[in-house]
């Protein structure tokens, strides 16, 4: 595994890289035209900004770690058989970006032999970096991250999302949502999975759950939560969330309550 000192160097370099890419993304917020938008499938939008941001990130990371491979949302590079692999989402929350909703992020994680060792989620509009190194800790800027210290589900703010793809079990999703509406203090649907996970780690919200996500949505944010003292699993209560795309992340107390509701609703 890469040494802590090297990972710390990567953390600083990539935070600076994200700040640079965020400047580009912000410069495009008011410039996106309809012909800059591609429709990949129903309810899934991607702008040219994704691809340019990804190009900037991949070029910089290639110089930083020429031996590494990449798994990226826009398939700028796709080398899945390297021991060292960068997981990149250049603009998580594309629909928010396109609609002028200021909640979107850059997400970059480093996976070494299947283990996530570095994670960075960068809140573009606020210039805030949420970073984590496995076994060392997690930070918002220079402030150490810690989950909000409450175990009362009635005080919990829950964040979730809903699948873009048609045909997934909407009734099960609504059953879980009903539980959260009745038993929790509030529920939010913010639109950037990576940033939502970072908010859990930072104690701004209490738990995040969602199904049918991709590895680039989850890798960095999941490490932030575990390094901030939380628990992350998939809906089956296993550690396969990067493969199967379902995730529950938060404190042990809230995780225990929500996973039982999710498993019952989804008949797991």
The structural domain count equals 2
List the strand order in the largest sheet. Answer: 3-4-5-6-7-8-9
Distance, first to last CA: 35 Å
Per DSSP, what share of the residues sits in E-state strands of 2 or more residues?
25-35%
CATH architecture of the largest domain: 2-Layer Sandwich
**How would you sum up the global shape?**
globular
Largest sheet: 7 strands, mixed
Look at the structure and name the CATH superfamily of the largest domain.
Fructose-1,6-Bisphosphatase, subunit A, domain 1
Notes on the structure:
- This protein has 2 domains: 4-144, Fructose-1,6-Bisphosphatase, Chain A, domain 1, CATH 3.30.540; 153-265, D-Maltodextrin-Binding Protein, domain 2 (3-Layer(aba) Sandwich), CATH 3.40.190.80.
- The strands form 3 sheets. A 7-stranded mixed sheet has the order 3-4-5-6-7-8-9, sandwiched between helices. Strands 11-10-12-14-13 form a 5-stranded mixed sheet, with helices on both faces.
- The protein starts with a helix and ends with a helix.
- β10 (157-160), α4 and β11 (186-188) form a beta-alpha-beta unit.
- The protein is globular and about 50 Å long.
- It has 268 residues and is α+β, with helices and mostly antiparallel strands.
- 38% of the residues lie in helices and 26% in strands.
């Amino acid at each position: 595994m890469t040494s802590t000192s090297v990972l710390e160097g990567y953390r600083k370099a990539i935070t600076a890289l994200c700040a640079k890419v965020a400047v580009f993304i912000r410069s495009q917020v008011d410039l996106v035209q309809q012909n800059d938008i591609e429709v990949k499938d129903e309810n899934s939008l991607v702008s040219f900004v994704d691809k340019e941001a990804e190009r900037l990130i991949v070029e910089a990371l290639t110089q930083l770690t020429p031996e590494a491979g990449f798994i990226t949302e826009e398939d700028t590079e796709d080398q899945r058989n390297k021991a060292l692999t960068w997981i990149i989402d250049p603009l998580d929350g594309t629909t928010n970006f396109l609609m002028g909703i200021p909640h979107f992020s850059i997400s970059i994680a480093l996976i070494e032999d299947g283990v996530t060792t570095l994670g960075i989620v960068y809140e573009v509009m606020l210039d805030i970096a949420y970073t984590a190194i496995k076994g060392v800790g997690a930070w918002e800027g220079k402030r150490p991250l810690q989950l909000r210290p409450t175990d009362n589900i009635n005080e919990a703010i829950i964040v979730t999302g809903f699948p873009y793809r048609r045909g997934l079990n909407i009734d099960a999703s609504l059953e879980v949502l009903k539980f959260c509406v009745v038993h929790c203090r509030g529920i939010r649907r913010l639109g950037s999975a990576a940033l939502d996970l970072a908010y859990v780690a930072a104690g701004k919200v209490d738990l995040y759950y969602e199904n049918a996500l991709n590895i680039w949505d989850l890798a960095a944010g999941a490490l932030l939560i575990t390094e901030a003292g939380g628990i992350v699993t998939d809906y089956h209560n296993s550690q396969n969330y990067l493969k199967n795309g379902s995730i529950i992340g938060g404190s042990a107390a809230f995780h225990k309550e929500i996973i039982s509701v999710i498993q019952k609703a989804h008949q797991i």
